[in-house]
């Protein structure tokens, strides 16, 4: 009997350790894909291969996810993950603004106060991105607390958050199409995106997270695969031209 109880305790301890490791991977694993891209931008002093709209998508998604958590308390791990991701995207934007400021030839600069939609999310100062994020957070907070008692609103908020997140790779996909190249984009970043999204989707399914999260993960995997196909296609096209 004692051996049986001992084995059960060992299994519980092993499972607790595994759950803790999985939670840590969920919180910080999303940051890892941006490390090689950050290093690539620093090394080349060039931001053309990276779409800063990826940062826009993730900032909107994770700010909304935080308010979704207020309305429906799902795993605390996913809330912490959102905070970490917001800080990571702000770091990426800060680097891009610094590089672009250094490389800028034209004296013409664009600010959020210009209210020119043509230059939305193409501002010259990092502070403008902070102002936008602050304004979006305040607006989201006001609307959320106004309709917090509505289950329909809370579910819609969750769906909107994961819809944004599901579109994470879309700006990069479109930029590659526009450039007809994946040059300057970190392939390691996309590979890590794919691995992370597979892990994340599995985590959602195992932990019975809200359905929105599972759908989001599946869509992200499909977009990741499409970007990897672009890497192969444009690489083949380049080899043909050189040949």
Describe the structure in your own words.
The protein starts with a helix and ends with a helix. The mean pLDDT is 82. It has nine helices and no strands. By secondary structure, the chain is mostly helical. The chain has helices at 2-29, 34-44, 53-71, 76-103, 126-146, 151-166, 170-179, 187-206, 211-242. Keywords: Membrane, Repeat, Transmembrane, Transmembrane helix. It is found in: Membrane. One of its GO terms (biological process) is phospholipid translocation. The chain crosses the membrane at residues 20-38, 50-70, 76-99, 129-148, 154-174.
Portion in helices: over 70%
The assembly state of the depicted protein chains is single chain
| SSE series | HHHHHHHHH
Q: Radius of gyration over alpha carbons?
A: 21 Å
Overall pLDDT metric: 82
- The N- to C-terminal Cα distance equals 73 Å
- Beta strands, count: 0
Bin the strand percentage.
under 5%
Task: Note the total helix count.
Answer: 9
Gross morphology is globular
Structural class: mainly alpha
For the largest beta-sheet, the strand count, sense and barrel status come to: none
Give unreliable regions as ranges.
Answer: none
Keywords: Membrane, Repeat, Transmembrane, Transmembrane helix
InterPro entries: PQ-loop_rpt, SLC66/Scramblase_ANY1
GO biological process, one term: phospholipid translocation
Membrane topology: Multi-pass membrane protein
Give the topology, please.
Blueprint: H1 2-29, H2 34-44, H3 53-71, H4 76-103, H5 126-146, H6 151-166, H7 170-179, H8 187-206, H9 211-242
Helix pairs in contact: 1-4, 2-4, 3-4, 3-5, 3-6, 6-9, 7-9, 8-9
